[in-house]
Design a protein that fits this description.
- The chain is of the alpha/beta class.
- It folds into 2 domains: 269 residues, Aspartate Aminotransferase, domain 2 (3-Layer(aba) Sandwich), CATH 3.40.640; 132 residues, Aspartate Aminotransferase, domain 1 (Alpha-Beta Complex), CATH 3.90.1150.
- It contains 15 helices and 12 strands.
- Helix 3 packs parallel to helix 10.
- It binds pyridoxal-5'-phosphate (PLP).
- The site of pyridoxal-5'-phosphate (PLP) has 15 residues, from helix 4.
- This is Cystathionine gamma-synthase family protein.
- Pfam families: Cys_Met_Meta_PP (PF01053).
- Belongs to the trans-sulfuration enzymes family.
- GO terms for molecular function: cysteine synthase activity; O-acetylhomoserine aminocarboxypropyltransferase activity; pyridoxal phosphate binding.
Length: 414
């Protein structure tokens, strides 16, 4: 295949494995389950271990099937390198494990995936200070930055309330201040948005969600976009400064985050994710169109008190979303009017399934305060704008009319 041609998103992902040579004519990257790797002789083994020759050492640090997926994700994010992890949380956890030390400070969006919020609480107990700010405002981020700030961490579209961080201006601020900017791109995926375009140094993707899309494998990734100058980062150990500076970050994350932390992606899971990733663009087109249609139906219904979806003109960052993203995403949330029991409503739905995943081919729906945001308590929920009656919908690829009819009849019976 012609490597120089500027192919589109789906063509590139479909054919990416072939760019590095086909094994036994297999059009899909084979699933290599071997944990250990042998070489021609003991000297070559030593040379691979010392990084003098390319090659795999032990399954925890890398594997050919996982590496093929890393290449694919890297192509999607247009990065300089990508590492995969067992889960999205494994990827985020590895950042903190590998890059932060006691006394450091992080500025984080307060609109966060619930487990990332919980991870920050752990980090704080271990001596890293975290300031939670309203990331829709670059001024709030700027005001929180101190001399000790090493990382600014935001999500693109926050789950579940869909607030959108002021992504470009925060990127500009981080660049001026030499701070590592990390963007969790899970809700948008590289099909809707490239964090590299707003100056993110590291990009997180929970591959479990839309990139795999089928809800049958867990996985996560970190992509270095090449935008961050690692010579400005004070926490890189001498060991990882041997190669060019643009490789320092991932070299340290691979060793400290992946090798020592051990949240490694299994080759079987990498295979399942790679199969799903081929149809990412097609699924996103459908789920985004379904989500917009459903958001409009809900907003027009008198039994619905509020709808949060960036594609609606009523969304506070509607214009910004249109400028930043190819489309408005497949996640929305809404509140029913007082007096309508949200559990009864959920139980009336025939197609939408009560479950906690998102980015699945099926429409999944969940009462947020009673499940995924239950542990953090009412006060923190209120600070994140999560009403006790909030319902989150991860919109799937069902036929649009079927989906709308399911919600309309559940509302009509309310
Ligand atoms: C799900 C999710 C994660 C974590 O991914 P897992 O694979 O479930 O560990 C991180 N960030 C966001 C925004 C998510 O939606």
């Amino acid at each position: 295949m012609n490597d120089k041609k500027n192919y589109g998103f789906t063509t590139t992902i479909l054919h990416n494995d072939r760019r590095k040579g086909i094994e036994h004519g297999s059009l899909h990257k084979p699933v290599h389950t071997s944990v250990a790797f042998g070489y021609a002789d003991a000297r070559q083994l030593a040379s691979v271990f010392q990084g003098k020759e390319p090659g795999f050492r032990y399954g925890r640090q890398g594997n050919p099937t996982v590496s093929a997926l890393e290449d694919k994700v890297n192509q999607m994010e247009q990065g300089v390198g990508t590492l995969c992890f067992a889960t999205g949380m494994g990827a985020i956890g590895a950042v903190f494990q590998a890059l932060l030390r006691a006394g450091d400070h992080v500025v984080s969006s307060s609109f966060l995936f619930g487990n990332t919020n919980s991870l920050w609480q752990t980090t704080m107990a271990q001596g890293v200070a975290v300031s939670f700010v309203d990331a829709t405002s670059v001024d709030a981020v700027a005001a929180a930055i101190t001399e000790q700030t090493r990382i600014v961490f935001v999500e693109t579209i926050a789950n579940p309330r869909t607030q959108i961080a002021d992504l470009a201006r925060i990127g500009e601020l981080c660049r001026e201040r030499g701070i590592l900017y990390i963007v969790d791109n899970t809700m948008t995926t590289p099909y809707l948005f490239l964090p590299k375009a707003v100056g993110a140094g590291l990009v997180v993707n929970a591959l479990t969600k839309s990139i795999a899309g089928h809800g049958m494998a867990l996985g996560g990734s970190l992509t270095d976009t090449g935008a961050y100058d690692w010579t400005k980062f004070p926490n890189i150990y001498e060991n990882y400064k041997k190669a060019a500076a643009k490789q320092w970050g991932l070299a340290q994350i691979r060793a400290k985050g992946l090798r020592d932390f051990g949240a490694s992606l299994a080759p079987e899971a990498a295979h399942h994710i790679a199969v799903g990733a081929e149809t990412l663009a097609l699924r996103m087109e459908r789920t985004c169109a379904n989500a917009l249609a459903l958001a409009r139906l809900l907003e027009a219904d008198e039994r619905v008190a509020a709808v949060y979806y960036p594609g609606l003109a009523s969304h506070p960052q509607h214009k910004l979303a249109g400028e930043l993203f190819r489309s408005y995403g497949s996640l929305l949330s809404f509140e029913l009017k007082d007096g309508i029991d949200c559990f009864d409503f959920l139980n009336r739905l025939q197609l939408a399934i009560p479950a906690s995943n998102l980015g699945d081919t099926r429409t999944l729906i969940i009462p947020v305060a009673h499940t995924i945001f239950y542990e953090m308590g009412a006060e923190r929920r209120a600070s994140m704008g999560i009403a006790e009656s909030l319902i989150r919908v991860s919109v799937g690829i069902e036929d649009t009319d079927d989906l709308l009819a399911d919600f309309a009849s559940a509302l009509n019976a309310s």
